[in-house]
Task: inverse folding
């Protein structure tokens, strides 16, 4: 049964994208997030200048682009962590500009941080529990009466344990989050965001630094999220991952959206290759290519040495 | 050396009035700093507004004692709002300085000639404690057993004080085990992360500031009632510093840390003094005279503090592992 | 002039006429309140009673004489000429003087703040013993100046060097060891409170509780420069302070060691990985910080005399200055401190001097409301 | 205040010996505790006060002690109000069965411990408190003080200022009960006398500097400037000279807290020439100061040493008179030995008279010291001194004025 | 977590592995190290790298890869075992001393000075050889042109990838003889990842010995001479890059099949 719905959802998502033109700012049939004219400048630098972009509900959308393209800054604007110079956006039809970060999260739009924010002196489990919404025990007066929140806490713990097992953090359950390795922090960051049970989860490079074998198993989980009706918007530089799970890809460069489309189309788009992917993105280096590469390198080196000896 | 007296004064210090009110102030700081990470260096202002709230209400306005207590509590809550609204957005170290500044402003106003008619200038106010001692259940007499003895007034203040400490500790214990406490601790670690998880950080910080302020301000009442007076200078930065020292000594973010810390602090202060003056009087120490005992005591207390923190940086109850996590 | 003395109820006691010096005397039987009236008609021509009132009501106490004064002034002076009625110009003159004083005080605070800021910046230590380092400098200079009898200028130089050495030793044998043990910055902060107590009371034991002054330049007379009175020592001190502040500020921004200091502040482990000898840099900073604090102490001592609590009493203002300017930035400390100094002094134009610190501290809070990172501080990016 | 207001006690506790420390019954040895500043912002006042007590106790014991036994003294630290040391020190003194405690110097500190001390049936005797509060405080008749009588000093000083012909007067007063109390009295006298107080600045003695305060005074260009404070006056003078208000253009007046022969000697010659200061006490302080220096050679300031000395002597005499060393018994005799009887001015002579069964009237170094019902001194002598070219005041007062403090 | 399953024997046994270590530039023997008292993260790992070799270290998250690099670089307390650099025992030597011996290091996280500008960051990279700064600066700016335009921007405001560039560039400022890289390609765009791998190879060719920790494991194994698979603080597998990349066990446990082989 599970498998069936899985294919259904994926099919639905793909169907929604099928007839869309591959151009920046294209309107989606059922957008969960609609962004208009968001601009953010730092001094003379325009970090973000997005004209119009929509994110389809129930889909997995990738946001890619060169380093410094403004992806993270864009996330910051949308989630209320930074104030945009201008622009407006709606989430589920609700205006979200100027809404403080915690309200954005409560509305169902949750983000993770590229530079992880582990709550160091809380255990991994406590980190997870914190993510849960609508906790009775988070009210001052109820907190004083343990009976009033114990039951809910147990449910939350069960859910947290489930996620931890999935993210291979169950062994670290009782350790301080501050003692996790770089990759483990990434995992915790993402798992914690999922505890919120958001409608739209925005992941900022969730898999950078995560072991490939684990990445692979986690992709299954992300797909599951889609099956549960969640929408996912993620930033990633790992093209294998983008290709594998995304239904739609949005490309940013120098603050603006420069292309949109399904993964395959995007990855063969010359502009995207030039700006972002580079020559070797696609094929793994074959033996001969490797040789050639090294050869080139040697020549360059030679030249350099000659230069130096002059 | 008179060991009896050294022992009895030391024991008395371990549970005495100073220990009580410093412990209360420190419990408040523990909530602010230990659990929430708010470097509130203006704790003495909470004690001050509570003490003065009570004193001014009773002596200047002439209202009954209980209303004075109410006014003191309300004043502490108001101060928390006044202090919190502008400052809670600040980074920890900025917050520290701003709260010191705010506390100094409060103290300077209380001690000013300008407002002498209300706050009594540098001499402060007295004569507001009758209401408290009128309900003293202890009959006149001396209580306790060797080497401790208290008169009925001290007994009454101490009873109330320790009951307040017990209640405060219970509240802290319950809260910090709860999800509410978890949010505070998370804010201490990284407030942006907490925000991203849908918690209203400002509101929690404010709740923490109010709770810690109100628990701390009880110390102001105890001080005022025990000495029968309030003076502006006791509510200076020194008091806050000592309260911080107490928190760290006991171990930050530990329920009983402040209480044990306060005991240790005062025991240290009194014991050092007892030993020193004993040694000087009996001629064991000859390199200083008796009037230098005072400064020497503080010098040794400073040294003791240093050594304690060098050899047990996590405090008495603290967890060394926690310390290792955030060490730079 | 004729003077009439009556009892409170108006019973006449005596009438006298003043002698050539203008004095007079009336013997009185009973203590109590009396009325003394000067007959205005008997005044010399062109003279009037200051304030116009020709009646006084002194209380006479048993066994003690009581004096009554009728100050006279030229009649023509009725209008604007009275000294205290200069109104506007007096206000501006005072404002100018206070502005000068603001810079004077601000620069001393800045100098002390610079040392604090350097040490905070590189080690993260909120050093509550910094006030005592200031005191230390002042007292060292006193030691060389008064008991040894050296002139204050060489004494100051020696004191600053000694204090630098002590700063070095402090890190070498104390703070450095703590760092090695992995003492956290909060624990270190509390340790610094312990150090402050230790040093302060050591000073009390060795130096005593009294206020002292250096042998030279004590109570130096002021020069009148336009609307401002200033002593030569003030002017020279301010010059030295400004030079030191700017030199150190630029050193931090421009020299390799300065940059390394900021790198250590940011991330000591990474600094070490870049080949920076972190301990060495921190030691340089401690040496410099100690020396600068000492210089601040000498300057403070020159303008305000010496006491074992002198640094402690300045500490809050130092912190305020550092914070206002933006923590960890040298020029921030300078600007912040001068603002603090200015507000302390200039605010007394409107508020009673006893509350002058209130003005400065309130400004600190206000500024941080609008610039939470301090004037020159920068906000970190999120995410 | 002291004397007879036990009845007005409103708290349920009382001085009934049952509740008090054992000392209240007396154990035959007069134990004098001191609660004086060894640390804190008033630490500079400590040494002279301790020396005053030490000198007195030394003389008493040389004269055979009290009730045939040597007087025992226990020194403790009162700190200042920023720390709560005083309370612990009192615990310590009470535990050691002190019969009387000399202290504290600061009115504020005294207020925090008065309940504790008097509640234990022990005398609290301050050499330096000037706050009005103590006149009416509930103290079971156990609080006394020899502190300089503000009212009289203020009156004498105020009259002096008027007599010198100062039509306009500015006052720089240290902002505490000593400074403001004295300043209030000066203002009143000066105004009654027909001169105008053009400016009054209450300053915080801990302030970083006094430039603003002086600037405020300068703006009014007063003929006379009154400096009320302690040793920080040296800083104030620095500032006065700097801003162009020197003593040769404006007349300066000082009070007992800052009329000092040591604080200003380093200043340029003539800085204080002609400055007048008032000091309570009928004799020039010089001789007494010499004796003090024998006790403590490091003394630089002598503030409140006479008052401390007198306090110790009075307690000892009262104990002799009461033939008991219990606090309450001594308190009952204190007023008696201070006035009405044969005058004497040192413990040995007084105690001789007492032993001869005579009524005595102790006249101390700080003044005639006659206690009123509130335990406050009722009569005082104020000496007026004038500074010379060497920035020291003459050994002989220009004038002495004795009067009832209340008038 | 430290209970290493004994059954999972390393592919090579210790003496076998170390037989090639005769002339190693840098070698670690039976390192035991950790952060918290009583908890060892490294449980006796061995590693050697010969002159001019490029070594890859891969493994699951939390295996102790970064810890191993930090231990070699004197940033973690070594509890037992030794680290040797060109025959000299450098166990627990301070980082800056290693830098002067020609070792360079790029940490995985916190790898820039946030309040310094990019230029100053790079200047710190050349701290011990200020004379070379200009020339090296030009060199790294050529590699990462983005840095040059931004030279006056504070590193704290940079994007994740830009920081990574700065970190890499900082290490390249010194021309070290041994370079320790902790996930140099993380967070970089595919184009720049290529560049980093290429650059590593190129530097290596020029004679620099490199130890590289990577989660981009396949790419890493492709370019390195030898690889180590670290698991739970021990070497689980060693071999040449090819051997490891083709080992089905390694693929299953550590490499995954997502990237097209
Ligand atoms: N606070 C700031 N001040 C100045 N410049 C900033 C600030 N924040 C971001 N920038 C600049 O804005 C640009 C966009 O940064 P952003 O972090 O959004 O990039 P990104 O697309 O997430 O890159 P990456 O893939 O490397 O994470 C960068 O060039 C960065 O240097
Ligand atoms: N500062 C620290 N304090 C305590 N434990 C730590 C610390 N850093 C890492 N650890 C623990 O050491 C183990 C190894 O961490 P390390 O960073 O070496 O892993 P890693 O192999 O580099 O992983 P990743 O690929 O995720 O970066 C982890 O289990 C982690 O929990
Ligand atoms: Mg980014
Ligand atoms: Mg790692």
Result:
């Amino acid at each position: 049964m599970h498998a069936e719905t899985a294919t259904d959802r994926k099919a639905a998502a793909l169907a929604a994208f099928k007839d869309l033109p591959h151009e920046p700012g294209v309107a989606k049939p059922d957008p969960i997030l609609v962004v208009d004219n968001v601009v953010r400048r730092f001094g003379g630098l325009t970090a973000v200048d997005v004209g119009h972009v929509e994110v389809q509900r129930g889909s997995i959308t990738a946001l890619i682009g060169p380093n410094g393209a403004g992806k993270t800054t864009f996330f910051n604007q949308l989630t209320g962590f930074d104030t945009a110079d201008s622009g407006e956006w709606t989430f589920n039809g609700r205006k979200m500009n100027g809404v403080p970060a915690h309200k954005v999260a409560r509305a169902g739009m949750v983000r993770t941080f590229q530079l992880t924010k582990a709550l160091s002196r809380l255990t991994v489990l406590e980190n997870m529990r914190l993510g849960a919404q609508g906790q009775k025990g988070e009210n001052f007066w109820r907190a004083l009466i343990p009976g009033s929140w114990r039951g809910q806490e147990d449910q939350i713990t069960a859910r947290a344990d489930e996620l931890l097992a999935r993210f291979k953090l169950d062994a670290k359950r009782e350790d301080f989050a501050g003692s996790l390795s770089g990759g483990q922090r990434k995992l915790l960051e993402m798992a914690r965001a999922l505890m919120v049970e958001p409608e739209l989860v925005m992941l900022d490079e969730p898999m950078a630094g995560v072991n490939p074998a684990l990445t692979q198993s986690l992709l299954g989980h992300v797909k599951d999220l889609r099956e549960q009706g969640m929408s996912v918007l993620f930033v990633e530089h790992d093209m294998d991952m983008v290709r594998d799970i995304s239904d739609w890809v949005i490309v940013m460069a120098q603050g603006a959206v420069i292309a949109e489309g399904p993964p395959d189309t995007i990855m063969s788009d010359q502009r995207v290759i030039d700006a972002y992917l580079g020559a070797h993105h696609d094929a793994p280096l074959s033996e001969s290519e490797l040789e050639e590469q090294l050869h080139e390198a040697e020549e360059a080196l030679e030249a350099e040495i000659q230069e130096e000896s002059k | 050396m008179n060991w009896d007296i050294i022992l009895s004064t030391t024991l008395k210090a371990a549970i005495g009035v100073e220990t009580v009110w410093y412990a209360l102030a420190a419990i408040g700081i523990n909530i602010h700093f230990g659990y929430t990470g708010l470097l509130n260096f203006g704790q003495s202002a909470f004690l001050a507004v509570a003490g003065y709230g009570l004193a001014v209400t009773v002596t200047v306005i002439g209202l009954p004692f209980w209303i004075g207590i109410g006014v003191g509590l309300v004043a502490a809550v108001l101060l928390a709002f006044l202090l919190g609204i502008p400052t809670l957005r600040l980074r920890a170290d900025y917050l520290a300085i701003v709260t010191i500044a705010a506390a100094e402003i409060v103290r300077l106003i209380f001690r000013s000639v300008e407002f002498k008619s209300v706050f009594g200038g540098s001499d402060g106010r007295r004569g507001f404690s009758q209401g408290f001692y009128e309900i003293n259940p202890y009959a006149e007499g001396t209580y306790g057993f060797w080497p401790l003895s208290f008169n009925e007034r001290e007994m009454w203040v101490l009873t109330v004080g320790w009951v307040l400490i017990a209640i405060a500790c219970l509240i802290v214990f319950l809260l910090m085990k709860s999800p509410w406490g978890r949010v505070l601790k998370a804010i201490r670690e990284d407030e942006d992360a907490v925000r991203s998880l849908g918690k209203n950080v400002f509101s929690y910080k404010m709740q923490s500031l109010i709770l810690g302020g109100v628990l701390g301000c009880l110390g102001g009442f105890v001080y005022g009632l025990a000495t029968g007076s309030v003076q502006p200078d006791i509510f200076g930065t020194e008091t806050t510093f000592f309260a911080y020292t107490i928190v760290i000594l006991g171990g930050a973010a530990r329920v009983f840390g402040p209480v044990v810390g306060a005991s240790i602090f005062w025991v240290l202060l009194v014991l050092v003094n007892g030993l020193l003056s004993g040694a000087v009087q009996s001629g064991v120490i000859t390199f200083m005279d008796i009037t230098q005992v005072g400064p020497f005591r503080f010098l040794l207390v400073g040294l003791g503090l240093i050594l304690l923190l060098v050899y047990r940086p996590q405090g008495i109850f603290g967890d060394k592992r926690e310390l290792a996590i955030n060490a730079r | 002039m004729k003077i009439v003395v009556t009892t409170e109820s108006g019973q006449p006691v005596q009438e006298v006429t003043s002698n050539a010096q203008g004095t007079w005397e009336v013997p009185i039987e009973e203590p109590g309140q009396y009325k003394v009236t000067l007959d205005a008609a008997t005044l010399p021509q062109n003279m009037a009673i200051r304030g116009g009132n020709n009646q006084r009501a002194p209380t006479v106490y048993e066994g003690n004489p009581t004096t009554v004064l009728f100050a006279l002034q030229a009649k023509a002076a009725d209008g604007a000429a009275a000294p205290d009625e200069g109104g506007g110009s007096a206000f501006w003159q005072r404002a100018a003087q206070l502005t000068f004083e603001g810079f004077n005080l601000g620069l001393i605070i800045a100098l002390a703040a610079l040392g604090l800021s350097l040490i905070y910046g590189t080690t993260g230590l909120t050093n509550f013993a910094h006030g005592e380092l200031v005191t230390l400098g002042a007292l060292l200079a006193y030691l060389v100046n008064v008991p040894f009898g050296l002139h204050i200028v060489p004494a100051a130089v020696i004191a600053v060097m000694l204090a630098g050495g002590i700063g070095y030793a402090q890190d070498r044998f104390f703070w450095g060891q703590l760092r090695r043990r992995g003492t956290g910055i909060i624990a270190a902060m509390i340790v610094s409170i312990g150090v402050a107590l230790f040093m302060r009371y050591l000073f009390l034991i060795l130096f005593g509780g009294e206020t002292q002054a250096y042998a030279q330049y004590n109570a130096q007379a002021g020069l009148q420069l336009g609307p401002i009175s200033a002593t030569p020592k003030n002017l020279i001190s301010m010059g030295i302070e400004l030079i030191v502040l700017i030199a150190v500020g630029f050193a931090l921004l421009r020299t390799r060691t300065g940059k390394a200091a900021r790198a250590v502040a940011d991330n000591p482990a990474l600094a070490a990985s870049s080949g920076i000898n972190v301990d060495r840099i921190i030691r340089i900073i401690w040496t410099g910080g100690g020396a600068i604090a000492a210089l601040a102490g000498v300057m403070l001592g020159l303008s305000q005399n010496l006491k074992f609590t002198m640094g402690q009493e300045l500490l809050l203002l130092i912190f305020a200055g550092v914070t206002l300017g933006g923590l960890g930035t040298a020029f921030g400390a300078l600007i912040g401190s001068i603002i603090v100094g200015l507000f302390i002094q200039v605010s007394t134009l409107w508020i009673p001097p006893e509350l002058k610190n209130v003005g400065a501290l309130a400004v600190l809070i206000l500024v941080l409301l609008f610039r939470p990172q301090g004037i020159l501080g920068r906000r970190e990016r999120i995410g | 205040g002291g004397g007879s207001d036990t009845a007005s006690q409103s708290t349920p506790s009382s001085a009934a010996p049952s509740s008090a420390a054992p000392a209240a019954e007396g154990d035959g040895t007069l134990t004098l505790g001191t609660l004086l500043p060894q640390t804190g912002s008033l630490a500079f006042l400590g040494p002279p006060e301790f020396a005053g007590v030490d000198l007195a106790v030394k003389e008493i014991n040389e004269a055979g002690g009290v009730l045939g036994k040597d007087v025992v003294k226990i020194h403790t630290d009162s700190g200042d109000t920023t720390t709560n040391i005083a309370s612990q020190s009192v615990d310590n003194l009470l535990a050691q069965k002190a019969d009387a405690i000399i202290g504290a110097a600061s009115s504020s500190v005294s207020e925090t411990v008065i309940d504790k001390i008097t509640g234990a049936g022990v005398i609290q005797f301050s050499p330096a408190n000037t706050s009005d509060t103590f006149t009416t405080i509930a103290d079971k008749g156990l609080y006394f003080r020899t502190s300089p009588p503000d009212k009289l000093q203020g009156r004498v000083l105020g009259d002096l200022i008027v007599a010198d012909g100062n039509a306009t007067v500015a006052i720089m007063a240290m902002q505490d009960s000593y400074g403001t109390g004295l300043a209030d009295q000066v203002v009143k006298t000066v105004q009654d006398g027909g001169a105008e107080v053009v400016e009054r600045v209450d300053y915080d003695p801990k302030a970083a500097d006094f430039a603003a305060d002086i600037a405020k005074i300068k703006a009014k260009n007063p003929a006379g400037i009154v400096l009320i404070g302690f040793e920080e006056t040296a800083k104030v003078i620095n500032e006065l000279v700097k801003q162009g208000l020197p003593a040769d253009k404006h007349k300066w007046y000082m009070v007992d807290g800052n009329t000092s022969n040591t604080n200003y000697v380093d200043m340029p010659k003539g800085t204080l020439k002609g400055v007048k200061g008032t000091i309570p006490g009928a004799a020039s302080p010089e001789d007494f100061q010499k004796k003090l220096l024998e006790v403590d050679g490091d003394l630089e300031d002598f503030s409140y040493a006479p008052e401390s000395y007198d306090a110790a002597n009075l307690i000892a005499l009262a104990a002799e008179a009461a033939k008991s060393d219990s606090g309450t018994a001594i308190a009952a005799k204190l007023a008696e030995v201070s006035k009405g009887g044969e005058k004497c001015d040192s413990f040995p002579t007084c105690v001789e008279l007492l032993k001869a069964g005579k009524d005595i009237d102790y006249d101390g170094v700080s003044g005639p010291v006659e206690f009123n019902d509130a335990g406050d001194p009722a009569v005082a002598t104020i000496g007026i001194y004038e500074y010379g070219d060497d920035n020291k005041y003459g050994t002989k007062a220009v004038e002495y004025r004795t009067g009832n403090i209340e008038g | 977590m430290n209970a290493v399953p004994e059954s999972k024997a390393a592919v090579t046994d210790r003496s076998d592995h170390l037989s090639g270590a005769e002339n190693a530039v840098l070698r670690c023997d039976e390192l035991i190290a950790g952060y918290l008292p009583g908890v060892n993260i490294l449980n006796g790992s061995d590693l050697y790298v010969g002159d001019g070799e490029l070594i890859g270290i891969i493994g699951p998250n939390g295996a102790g890869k970064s810890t191993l690099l930090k231990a070699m670089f004197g940033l973690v307390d070594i509890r037992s075992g030794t680290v040797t650099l060109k025959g000299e025992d450098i166990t627990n030597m301070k980082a800056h001393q290693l830098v002067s011996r020609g070792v360079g290091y790029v940490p995985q996280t916190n790898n820039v000075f946030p309040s310094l500008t990019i230029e100053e960051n790079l200047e710190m990279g050349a701290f011990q050889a200020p004379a070379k700064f200009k020339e090296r600066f030009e060199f790294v700016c050529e590699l990462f042109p983005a840095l040059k335009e931004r030279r006056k921007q504070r590193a704290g405001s940079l994007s994740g990838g830009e920081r990574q560039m700065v970190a890499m560039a900082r290490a390249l400022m010194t021309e070290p003889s041994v370079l320790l890289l902790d996930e140099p390609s993380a967070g970089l765009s595919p184009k720049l990842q290529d560049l980093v791998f290429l650059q590593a190879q190129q530097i290596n060719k020029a004679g620099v010995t490199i130890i590289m920790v990577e989660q981009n494991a396949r790419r890493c194994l492709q370019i390195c001479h030898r690889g180590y698979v670290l698991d739970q603080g021990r070497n689980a597998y060693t071999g040449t890059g090819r051997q490891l990349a083709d080992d089905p066990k390694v693929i299953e446990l550590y490499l995954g099949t997502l990237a097209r082989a």
Chain E has eleven helices and ten strands. Chain E has a mean pLDDT of 83. Strands of chain E lie at 24-33, 42-50, 54-58, 78-85, 88-89, 103-106, 178-182, 209-213, 226-231, 234-240. The radius of gyration of chain E is 18 Å.
